[in-house]
Protein backbone atom coordinates (compact mmCIF):
# COMPACT_ATOMS: atom_id res chain seq x y z
CA UNK A 1 0.00 0.00 0.00
CA UNK A 2 1.23 3.50 -0.79
CA UNK A 3 2.22 5.93 1.92
CA UNK A 4 -0.28 8.78 1.86
CA UNK A 5 0.69 10.64 5.05
CA UNK A 6 4.34 10.70 6.11
CA UNK A 7 5.48 12.56 9.24
CA UNK A 8 9.23 12.88 9.69
CA UNK A 9 11.13 14.18 12.75
CA UNK A 10 8.41 16.72 13.55
CA UNK A 11 9.10 19.31 16.25
CA UNK A 12 6.42 21.82 17.23
CA UNK A 13 5.66 24.23 20.03
CA UNK A 14 2.79 26.23 21.51
CA UNK A 15 3.92 29.68 22.56
CA UNK A 16 7.26 28.96 24.28
CA UNK A 17 6.62 25.32 25.15
CA UNK A 18 8.01 22.60 22.88
CA UNK A 19 5.47 19.76 22.68
CA UNK A 20 6.47 17.58 19.72
CA UNK A 21 10.09 16.42 19.88
CA UNK A 22 10.80 14.39 16.79
CA UNK A 23 7.46 12.70 16.08
CA UNK A 24 7.46 10.30 13.13
CA UNK A 25 4.63 8.26 11.63
CA UNK A 26 3.53 6.89 8.26
CA UNK A 27 -0.13 6.13 7.43
CA UNK A 28 -0.67 4.26 4.19
CA UNK A 29 -3.77 3.87 2.07
CA UNK A 30 -6.20 1.43 3.67
CA UNK A 31 -4.34 1.29 6.98
CA UNK A 32 -5.89 1.97 10.38
CA UNK A 33 -3.41 3.35 12.91
CA UNK A 34 -4.01 4.06 16.59
CA UNK A 35 -1.91 6.71 18.34
CA UNK A 36 -2.04 6.36 22.11
CA UNK A 37 -0.33 8.00 25.04
CA UNK A 38 -0.94 9.61 28.42
CA UNK A 39 -2.39 13.10 28.73
CA UNK A 40 0.15 15.73 27.74
CA UNK A 41 2.21 13.41 25.55
CA UNK A 42 1.58 15.44 22.38
CA UNK A 43 -1.17 13.49 20.61
CA UNK A 44 -3.59 16.38 20.14
CA UNK A 45 -0.72 18.73 19.30
CA UNK A 46 0.09 16.45 16.38
CA UNK A 47 -3.53 16.60 15.22
CA UNK A 48 -3.53 20.41 15.45
CA UNK A 49 -0.32 20.64 13.41
CA UNK A 50 -1.79 18.36 10.76
CA UNK A 51 -4.95 20.48 10.54
CA UNK A 52 -2.93 23.71 10.25
CA UNK A 53 -3.87 25.37 13.54
CA UNK A 54 -1.84 28.64 13.49
CA UNK A 55 -1.31 28.58 17.26
CA UNK A 56 1.05 25.61 16.83
CA UNK A 57 4.43 26.52 15.37
CA UNK A 58 6.48 23.88 13.56
CA UNK A 59 10.17 24.20 14.39
CA UNK A 60 11.52 21.54 12.07
CA UNK A 61 10.65 18.30 10.34
CA UNK A 62 8.27 17.63 7.48
CA UNK A 63 4.84 16.24 6.71
CA UNK A 64 4.18 14.85 3.24
CA UNK A 65 0.69 14.13 1.95
CA UNK A 66 0.61 12.29 -1.38
CA UNK A 67 4.21 13.40 -1.80
CA UNK A 68 3.40 17.10 -1.32
CA UNK A 69 4.39 19.40 1.53
CA UNK A 70 1.33 19.41 3.78
CA UNK A 71 2.73 22.12 6.04
CA UNK A 72 2.82 24.56 3.11
CA UNK A 73 -0.92 24.11 2.46
CA UNK A 74 -3.67 26.27 3.95
CA UNK A 75 -6.12 24.34 6.18
CA UNK A 76 -8.90 24.48 3.57
CA UNK A 77 -6.54 23.17 0.90
CA UNK A 78 -5.68 20.19 3.12
CA UNK A 79 -9.38 19.41 3.44
CA UNK A 80 -10.04 19.77 -0.30
CA UNK A 81 -7.20 17.32 -1.00
CA UNK A 82 -8.87 14.65 1.11
CA UNK A 83 -7.63 15.13 4.68
CA UNK A 84 -10.32 15.08 7.36
CA UNK A 85 -9.96 15.77 11.07
CA UNK A 86 -12.64 15.04 13.67
CA UNK A 87 -12.03 17.30 16.64
CA UNK A 88 -11.99 16.39 20.32
CA UNK A 89 -14.12 19.46 21.07
CA UNK A 90 -16.22 20.35 17.99
CA UNK A 91 -17.20 24.03 17.86
CA UNK A 92 -20.73 25.38 17.53
CA UNK A 93 -21.78 27.54 14.57
CA UNK A 94 -24.95 29.40 15.59
CA UNK A 95 -27.22 30.35 12.70
CA UNK A 96 -25.81 27.78 10.26
CA UNK A 97 -27.79 24.58 9.81
CA UNK A 98 -26.07 21.24 9.43
CA UNK A 99 -27.59 20.85 5.96
CA UNK A 100 -26.24 24.21 4.80
CA UNK A 101 -22.83 23.53 6.34
CA UNK A 102 -22.55 20.10 4.73
CA UNK A 103 -23.67 21.33 1.31
CA UNK A 104 -21.04 24.08 1.40
CA UNK A 105 -18.33 21.71 2.61
CA UNK A 106 -18.97 18.98 0.05
CA UNK A 107 -19.13 21.59 -2.73
CA UNK A 108 -15.65 22.83 -1.75
CA UNK A 109 -14.35 19.25 -1.43
CA UNK A 110 -15.50 18.57 -5.00
CA UNK A 111 -13.65 21.60 -6.29
CA UNK A 112 -16.62 23.80 -7.19
CA UNK A 113 -16.11 27.54 -7.41
CA UNK A 114 -16.35 29.45 -4.13
CA UNK A 115 -19.79 30.87 -4.93
CA UNK A 116 -21.19 27.71 -6.52
CA UNK A 117 -22.91 24.94 -4.55
CA UNK A 118 -23.72 21.36 -5.43
CA UNK A 119 -27.17 21.09 -6.98
CA UNK A 120 -29.88 20.81 -4.34
CA UNK A 121 -31.40 17.61 -5.73
CA UNK A 122 -27.98 15.91 -5.91
CA UNK A 123 -27.13 17.02 -2.37
CA UNK A 124 -30.45 15.83 -0.97
CA UNK A 125 -29.94 12.42 -2.57
CA UNK A 126 -26.41 12.20 -1.11
CA UNK A 127 -27.36 13.31 2.40
CA UNK A 128 -30.41 11.03 2.51
CA UNK A 129 -28.22 8.04 1.65
CA UNK A 130 -25.58 8.92 4.28
CA UNK A 131 -28.15 9.55 7.02
CA UNK A 132 -29.69 6.13 6.34
CA UNK A 133 -26.32 4.35 6.16
CA UNK A 134 -25.20 5.79 9.49
CA UNK A 135 -28.63 5.61 11.16
CA UNK A 136 -28.49 9.30 12.08
CA UNK A 137 -31.68 11.13 13.10
CA UNK A 138 -32.45 13.26 10.00
CA UNK A 139 -33.78 16.07 12.22
CA UNK A 140 -30.13 16.94 12.94
CA UNK A 141 -29.91 18.48 9.45
CA UNK A 142 -32.25 21.33 10.40
CA UNK A 143 -30.38 22.20 13.60
CA UNK A 144 -27.55 24.71 13.89
CA UNK A 145 -24.11 23.08 13.78
CA UNK A 146 -23.38 21.61 17.25
CA UNK A 147 -25.66 24.19 18.90
CA UNK A 148 -27.16 22.48 21.95
CA UNK A 149 -25.86 19.09 20.80
CA UNK A 150 -25.03 16.45 23.38
CA UNK A 151 -21.52 14.95 23.31
CA UNK A 152 -22.80 11.94 21.42
CA UNK A 153 -24.69 14.07 18.90
CA UNK A 154 -21.57 16.13 18.19
CA UNK A 155 -19.57 12.99 17.46
CA UNK A 156 -22.34 11.54 15.27
CA UNK A 157 -22.45 14.83 13.38
CA UNK A 158 -18.72 14.59 12.69
CA UNK A 159 -19.07 11.03 11.43
CA UNK A 160 -21.83 12.30 9.11
CA UNK A 161 -19.47 15.05 7.89
CA UNK A 162 -16.81 12.44 7.22
CA UNK A 163 -19.27 10.30 5.28
CA UNK A 164 -20.37 13.21 3.09
CA UNK A 165 -16.83 14.45 2.43
CA UNK A 166 -15.42 10.96 1.71
CA UNK A 167 -11.84 11.74 2.80
CA UNK A 168 -8.79 9.71 1.82
CA UNK A 169 -7.19 10.12 5.26
CA UNK A 170 -9.33 10.57 8.39
CA UNK A 171 -7.79 11.68 11.68
CA UNK A 172 -9.96 11.11 14.74
CA UNK A 173 -8.66 13.25 17.61
CA UNK A 174 -9.95 11.78 20.90
CA UNK A 175 -13.29 11.07 19.21
CA UNK A 176 -14.25 8.77 22.10
CA UNK A 177 -13.60 11.44 24.75
CA UNK A 178 -16.50 11.84 27.17
CA UNK A 179 -18.73 9.25 25.49
CA UNK A 180 -20.51 6.37 27.14
CA UNK A 181 -20.05 2.86 25.81
CA UNK A 182 -23.13 2.96 23.58
CA UNK A 183 -22.00 6.22 21.96
CA UNK A 184 -18.47 4.83 21.45
CA UNK A 185 -20.00 1.85 19.64
CA UNK A 186 -22.04 4.14 17.38
CA UNK A 187 -19.02 6.28 16.50
CA UNK A 188 -16.88 3.19 15.87
CA UNK A 189 -19.58 1.65 13.69
CA UNK A 190 -19.68 4.85 11.64
CA UNK A 191 -15.91 4.84 11.10
CA UNK A 192 -15.95 1.15 10.20
CA UNK A 193 -18.80 1.73 7.77
CA UNK A 194 -16.91 4.55 6.02
CA UNK A 195 -13.82 2.37 5.83
CA UNK A 196 -15.80 -0.44 4.19
CA UNK A 197 -17.55 1.93 1.76
CA UNK A 198 -14.15 3.27 0.66
CA UNK A 199 -13.27 -0.25 -0.44
CA UNK A 200 -10.90 -0.38 2.55
CA UNK A 201 -8.81 2.31 0.88
CA UNK A 202 -9.33 5.12 3.39
CA UNK A 203 -6.44 5.66 5.80
CA UNK A 204 -7.45 6.23 9.43
CA UNK A 205 -5.49 7.62 12.38
CA UNK A 206 -7.34 7.14 15.67
CA UNK A 207 -5.84 9.32 18.41
CA UNK A 208 -7.01 8.15 21.81
CA UNK A 209 -6.08 7.97 25.48
CA UNK A 210 -8.16 4.90 26.28
CA UNK A 211 -8.01 1.57 24.42
CA UNK A 212 -11.76 0.91 24.63
CA UNK A 213 -12.62 2.30 21.16
CA UNK A 214 -10.01 -0.07 19.69
CA UNK A 215 -12.21 -2.98 20.72
CA UNK A 216 -14.57 -1.82 17.96
CA UNK A 217 -12.13 -0.25 15.47
CA UNK A 218 -9.38 -2.83 15.04
CA UNK A 219 -6.13 -1.09 14.07
CA UNK A 220 -3.46 -2.23 11.64
CA UNK A 221 -0.78 -0.69 13.86
CA UNK A 222 -0.70 0.79 17.35
CA UNK A 223 1.78 3.48 18.42
CA UNK A 224 2.54 4.88 21.86
CA UNK A 225 3.71 8.46 22.34
CA UNK A 226 5.64 9.77 25.33
CA UNK A 227 7.06 13.28 25.67
CA UNK A 228 6.35 14.38 22.12
CA UNK A 229 7.52 11.41 20.09
CA UNK A 230 6.50 7.85 19.33
CA UNK A 231 8.59 5.44 21.38
CA UNK A 232 7.05 2.08 20.49
CA UNK A 233 4.78 0.48 17.91
CA UNK A 234 3.16 -2.91 17.52
CA UNK A 235 0.09 -4.80 16.39
CA UNK A 236 -3.37 -4.45 17.92
CA UNK A 237 -2.10 -6.65 20.74
CA UNK A 238 -0.15 -3.63 22.01
CA UNK A 239 -3.48 -1.92 22.78
CA UNK A 240 -4.60 -5.01 24.71
CA UNK A 241 -1.32 -4.94 26.63
CA UNK A 242 -1.84 -1.27 27.45
CA UNK A 243 -5.24 -2.17 28.82
CA UNK A 244 -3.58 -4.68 31.16
CA UNK A 245 -0.41 -2.91 32.34
CA UNK A 246 -1.11 0.77 31.62
CA UNK A 247 1.22 3.46 30.36
CA UNK A 248 3.56 3.05 33.30
CA UNK A 249 4.15 -0.56 32.27
CA UNK A 250 4.91 0.37 28.65
CA UNK A 251 7.15 3.22 29.80
CA UNK A 252 9.11 0.79 32.01
CA UNK A 253 9.60 -1.57 29.05
CA UNK A 254 10.88 1.30 26.90
CA UNK A 255 13.26 2.56 29.57
CA UNK A 256 14.60 -0.98 30.11
CA UNK A 257 15.32 -1.39 26.38
CA UNK A 258 16.90 2.08 26.21
CA UNK A 259 19.17 1.27 29.15
CA UNK A 260 20.33 -1.97 27.50
CA UNK A 261 21.43 -0.49 24.16
CA UNK A 262 24.34 1.76 23.48
CA UNK A 263 23.15 3.76 20.49
CA UNK A 264 20.08 5.11 18.80
CA UNK A 265 17.66 3.52 16.40
CA UNK A 266 15.05 0.84 16.00
CA UNK A 267 15.09 -1.98 18.55
CA UNK A 268 12.81 -5.01 18.29
CA UNK A 269 11.88 -6.62 21.58
CA UNK A 270 8.96 -8.72 22.85
CA UNK A 271 7.04 -8.36 19.59
CA UNK A 272 7.23 -4.57 19.61
CA UNK A 273 9.41 -1.97 17.92
CA UNK A 274 11.06 0.58 20.21
CA UNK A 275 12.68 3.78 18.92
CA UNK A 276 15.55 4.57 21.22
CA UNK A 277 17.11 8.01 21.25
CA UNK A 278 19.88 8.94 23.68
Strand content: 25-35%
CATH fold call: Rossmann fold
Backbone CA Rg? 19 Å
Number of domains: 1
Q: CATH superfamily assignment?
A: P-loop containing nucleotide triphosphate hydrolases
Instruction: Classify the helix fraction into a percent range.
Output: 25-40%
- Note poorly predicted spans: none
Number of strands: 14
| Global geometry | globular
CATH class: Alpha Beta
Strand order of the largest sheet: 6-9-10-3-11-12-14-13
Please count the helical segments. Answer: 7
What's the oligomerization state? single chain
Structural class: alpha/beta
Instruction: Tell me, rounded to a whole number, the average pLDDT.
Output: 90
Describe the sheet with the most strands. Answer: 8 strands, mixed
List the helices and strands and how they pair.
Elements (H helix, E strand, L loop, with lengths): L2 E12 L2 E12 L3 E5 L6 H9 L4 E10 L2 E2 L5 H6 L2 E4 L6 E5 H12 L10 H15 L9 E2 L5 H15 L3 E5 L7 H17 L5 E6 L12 E6 L2 E6 L2 H24 L4 E5 L2 E5 L2
Parallel strand pairs: 3-10, 3-11, 6-9, 9-10
Antiparallel strand pairs: 1-2, 1-4, 4-5, 7-8, 11-12, 12-14, 13-14
Structural write-up:
With about 280 residues, the protein is of the alpha/beta class. The chain has a single domain, classed as Rossmann fold. Helices cover about 35% and strands about 30% of the residues. The chain is built from 7 helices and 14 strands. The strands form 3 sheets. It has an 8-stranded mixed beta sheet, sandwiched between helices. Strands 2-1-4-5 form a 4-stranded antiparallel beta sheet. A two-stranded antiparallel sheet has the order 7-8. α4 crosses α5 and α5 runs parallel beside α6. It is globular. The two termini are about 30 Å apart. The model has no long low-confidence stretch (mean pLDDT about 90).
Amino acid sequence: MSAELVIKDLWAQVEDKVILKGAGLTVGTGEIHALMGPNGSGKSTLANVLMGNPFYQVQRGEVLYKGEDLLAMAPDERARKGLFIAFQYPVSIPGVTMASFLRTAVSARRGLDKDKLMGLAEFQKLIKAKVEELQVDPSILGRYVNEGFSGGEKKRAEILQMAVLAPEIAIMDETDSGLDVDAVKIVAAGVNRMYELSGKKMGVLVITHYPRILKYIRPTRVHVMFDGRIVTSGTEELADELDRIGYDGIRAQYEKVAAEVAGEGEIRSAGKVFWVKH
